[in-house]
Amino acid sequence: MQFEVHYQPIVDLNGELAVGVEALVRWRHPVRGLLAPGDFIELAETLGLMPGLGLWVLREACAQAVVWQQDNPGFKVNVNLSATQLSSPELTDEVGAVLADTGLPPNSLVLELTESMALTDLTESARVLSSLKTLGVRIALDDFGTGFSSLSHLGALPVDVVKIDKSFVAAMRETTATGSVAEAVLHIARTFNLAPVAEGVEDEMQATLLRELACAEAQGYHFARPMPAAELTGLLTRQS
Ligand code: G
Ligand code: G
Ligand code: MN
Ligand code: NA
């Protein structure tokens, strides 16, 4: 198996403890080394490999989360869905089977889809997401703030979490959070009762500004990079 799942912590901004992870697939290429998804996901989609690879990542990540939950009750795992997974009529049954097989509590699983995927066919997305939600899982909109030309979709989709795109976090270079685009995006999230997770937090200033804006959770190199499961186990052991 040349694929691996790496995990990046999602931290509680107040305690700075990992409360969950995002699962990120890697391809350990025999010649080219460790490849990030940007280098192969599109090709895998084109070749029709994504539904299978995505399902493998989901199963791997859920099984791993069950292990981490033994010492970290309520620990969450975020798994990305591809466009072809989202359009597969089997998706809900497959996710249900993985939850049943691994024993992961459904509300510990957060399925991430990008805003642009969700907006391709709003009616169909609403139907698929509602079907997934009957399992008890939660839904996150990834790259939030980059995809919408209108806000009308936010009321139409059964979404629980929004991941504030790292471009807005990167732009937080001022000494005050007020007036930043991140502030506006967080305000939109709150208006629609969506739990925000800030992405791409790279320094303490950004973390402080986000804390001031009452953003509860964040992810980024400032806290930790994506890492193999064994390394994350070590990190969790040190924090508990
Ligand atoms: O891992 P990186 O750190 O380079 O991730 C790049 C992008 O690849 C992320 O935006 C993420 O959404 C996507 N990605 C990572 N893992 C998966 C996966 O298992 N399935 C899908 N569909 N996308 C993934
Ligand atoms: O699913 P998504 O595209 O949001 O996946 C997160 C991507 O962002 C991954 O490629 C991950 O490696 C990357 N990433 C995580 N933390 C940081 C960070 O602090 N800065 C930057 N530039 N990228 C990050
Ligand atoms: Mn993601
Ligand atoms: Na993102």
From TrEMBL:
Residues 1-240 form the EAL domain. It comes from the Bacteria. It holds the Pfam family EAL. This is EAL domain-containing protein. The lineage of its organism: Bacteria, Bacillati, Actinomycetota, Actinomycetes, Micromonosporales.
